[in-house]
Protein 1
Amino acid sequence: MDLRTERSRLLSAFQKRFGSGGQVRAAIAPGRSNLIGEHTDYNGGLVLPIAVDRHILVLFRPARGTPARIAVYTETLEARDEFSVSGTHAAGDPKLHWANYVRGTAQALINRGIKLKGGDLYITGDLPRGAGLSSSAALETATALALLTLAGRAMAPQPLAFACQEAEHRFAGVRCGIMDQTVVGLAKPNHALLLDCHSMATRHVPIALRGYSFAVFDTGVRHKLAGSEYNKRRAECEHAAALLKQKTLRGVTLDAMLAIAGSLTASEHRRVRHVLTENLRVVQFAAALARGDVAELGALLDASHESLSRDYAVSCVELDQLVAQLRARGARDHGCAGARMTGGGFGGAVVALLKTSAFPPYARAMKPYAKGGSLLLTPSAGARVVRL
Ligand code: GLA
C-alpha cells in the first residue's frame, strides 16, 4: 500500500469512525513468506523468510472521551471491539475471532509491565487473510507498535516478537514458533532474514537474482485440522527431543539418533528426519542465494516440499497438485526453477522461484489450482510507525 497516495482516504476513514482532530499515526506491518526452513522454528532450527510488500495498518490516536478504553474497528471485517487498558481476559475467546489478536497483544504487553493508555485503533491494509502470508503476525505486530506508541514506550524487536507470539499461543490457540513475528519486525528490503531460532541470531541475506523472483500461489483452501495438526507435529517433535534428553531437536546428532532409534515410532522418525534435513537445506539455500544459483535454489525448494509432504505430513492434495503443476510447466518452459508449500500447511500457499517475466502467464495458468490468487513477491521492510 502506498501511504502517500492513500493518506487522505485513510485519514478520512479514520475520522469518519472516530471523529476528527488530533494527530493520527499509522503502525504498518508487512506479511511474510517463508522461502525455506518450514516447521523448524519451534524445533530450535533455522528459517529464511522475507517480508512481503502487503501490509496491515493500524491507524491510531490517543483516546479523548474515555481514556481508560481501547476502541478498535476493522475496516476489512466491518467489526468493532472495545476493552479496558487494564486488561482483557486471561485467554482467548473463540467467539471474539479477529479481536483475539488485538486483545491478546494488549494482554501480552500488560504482562510485560507496560501500562497501556486509551486510544482509538482503526485496522485496514492490503494483506489478504488466510493466504499463507501470516496476516496474524502482521496484525499482532502493528497492534503492539500502536499500543506501545500510545503508551509512550518502546520495545526492541525481539522481545516484541515474543510478546506477539504469546498473543497467538494464549489467544489464538496455535503454539506457533517465532519466525513470523521476528521477520515481520526485523526484515530489510531486498533481503531474506536468516534466523537461528535456537540462539535467536539473525543475518540479512541479500537477494539479487537477476531476472528471477519468488512468487506465492494460494490454493485458497484451509483445512479445519490445520491448527490441531500443527500442535500435534510440535508435540511429536517435543517427545522425540525429550527421549534424546534435549529441549529441542536442534542439538540432535546422528549418534544420538542411532542410540534411541528403537524408541521412536516410525512417524516420529520421519518428523525428526524432516527437521534435521530442512535445517541443512536452509544453510545450503542461503549460500545458493549469495551465489545467485537458481538451479540449486529450485532443487532445494523441491526437496523441501517432498520432505514436508512425505516425512512431516503437513501438505494436502491441493498443495501437492499446485506444486506438481508449477513443476510440470517449469520442465516445459524453464519459467519455474522449483516450488514448495510454505507456512504451516494443510492448505495455504506455495512459494516458487520463477523467471520474473514468466509470472503473468504462470499466474493465468495456475488459476484453477491457485484459487486464492497469486502474488509476485518484493522482499520488503519490517514494521514501523509513521505519521499520517
Ligand atoms: C506457521 C507458524 C510458524 C512456523 C510455520 C511453519 O506459519 O506461525 O511459527 O512454525 O507455521 O514453518
Note: The chain has a mean pLDDT of 94.
Protein 2
Amino acid sequence: MKPVVLNSPDQNKERKRTDKTNNFEEFILDDSFKVLGSNKYYYLYTYGCQGNESDSEKIRGLMEGMSFSITYDLDKTDIIIMNTCAIRKNAEDKVFGELGRLKQLKRKKPDLIVGLCGCMAQEESVVRRLLTKYQNVDFIFGTHNIHSLPSLIKRVMENKERVVDVLSYEGDIVEKIPMVRESNIKAWVPIMYGCDEFCTYCIVPYTRGKERSRLKENIIKEVEDLISQGYQEITLLGQNVNAYGKDFVDHKYDFADLLSDLSELPIPRIRFTTNNPKDFDDRQIEVIKNSKNIMPAIHLPVQSGSNKILKKMNRKYTKESFIELCDKLYKAIPDVSITTDIIVAFPYETEEDFCETLELVKRCNFEGAYTFIFSKREGTPAANYVDENITEEIAYDRLYRLNDLVNEGYARGNNRFLNKIVKVLIEGYSKSNENILMGYTENNKLVNVLGDKKYIGKIVDVKIKDAKTWSLDGEIID
Ligand code: 5AD
Ligand code: SF4
C-alpha cells in the first residue's frame, strides 16, 4: 500500500535553530474520537529515557481518552504502539528486531495496527527503511506531535491507510495532553523539551528539537495536582534542566527560581534530571542546599575526563571545571551522591585520554555511572570522525576497565549506609521476590525490606543491615 506522507523528517530542518519564540497550545480531545477504541485493546512498548517514559504516559492518556484499554498480551491487542529511542545503534536494533517478530503476528492477525513514534521516527533513514522494508508498520508520528495520535489512528482505522506524520520544525509546547501515569507514588514532570547543546555524538537535538521551557505556572499547577493526589516524589525532566528558562524572552526566571518555588510546596521529594555541568550554577546549588525536599542525589554526566575529548564532544566545560563543580556540591550538600554518564572509545580517544577518565572517576567519587561505547549516529558531526586505531576489542577493554572502577563506586556508595537509619519511600514489591518490599533512599539507593503492604506509598525509617553492590537490605523501624 502506498503511504500517505503528511510530513516526513528532514535532518537539515531539524538542525536549524531560529529566534522564533515558543508557541503554546492547549490540547482538546475532540468528541469524535472518544469512542473510537471501545472494546479494543492497545499494547505499548516504551524504549529509552525518562523523557520517553513520560511521553508514553501521554500516549496512554490519549489512547484511554479514545476508550482503548491497555493489554500486556500481544495476542489480544488491536493496536501496537512502539515508542522508540535513537540514542545508540543497539537501541534501534532492538526495535527493528521486535518489528521483525511482529511481522509474524500481523500475518496471523491481518487487522492488527502497528504504529511507531519517538526518537527513531524523527530519523530520515529510519522512516525510509520502515516504509520500504516494514510493510507491517501502519503509521509513524514524531516527538513533536504526540497529540496527532487520535487523528492518525482514526485515518488508519477508517481509511485503511498507511500514514506518516513527522514534523521537523522546532516544536511547540502542547499543554493539557491527558496522561495515565505509571505510578501513583512517583511522577515525571517535564519542565522543558528539546536540546540546543549539539554535543557532537548526540542525536537528541535533532530528534527532540529546540530547547523549549514550559511556563512556570503550568509546572507548578501540575505539581500541586500531583500533591493533591497523594504523590510523594516528583522528578523534573529535561535534557538540560539547568538551562530551564534560558529560552524565555525576558530571562527573569530560571532553574534556581523554579527549584526554589517547587521546594516550598508540600511534596516530600524532588529530583531532577539530567544536568549539564556547564549550566549548573551557584544559585542552583544554594537552593538545593537550603531546601529540605530536594534530594541529595545528583546525576551529572561528564562523558570524558580528557579535555581534548571533551572539546571534540563540544561539551563546553573542562575536566578542571567539572571537578570544581563536584567539590562545590560535596561541600554544600552533606552526604550528596553524585552519579554520571561516560562514553568510552570516542574517536581520537587514546589510552592516555581514557586513563584521564579513570582518574576523574576516582577523583570525583561517583557512586554510579551509566557507561557506553561510542555509537555512530547518522547526521551528527562525530559520525564523520574517523579513527581506525580504536578497534572493537579496545572499546570493550576500556568499557570493562571503567565498569570495574564504577562498580567500586556503587559498592562504596552503598556501604556508607551500613548500620545507619535512612528514609525509604516504599514503592511496592520487589521484582525478584514477592514477599519483599522495595523502595529508594533519599540518595536514590535501592533498599529491600520485609514488611506489610500498608507501607507502600509511605516514607519509612529503615535500619540498613546489609550492603551489596547494587542494593541495600534493611529493617523497617516503626
Ligand atoms: N554513543 C554512545 N553514548 C551516547 N550517549 C549519547 N549519545 C551517545 C552516542 N552516540 C550517552 C551519553 C548520554 C547518555 C544519555 O547516553 O552518555 O549522557
Ligand atoms: Fe533516546 Fe535520547 Fe530520545 Fe530519550 S531523548 S528516547 S535517550 S534518543
Note: The longest helix spans residues 392-415.
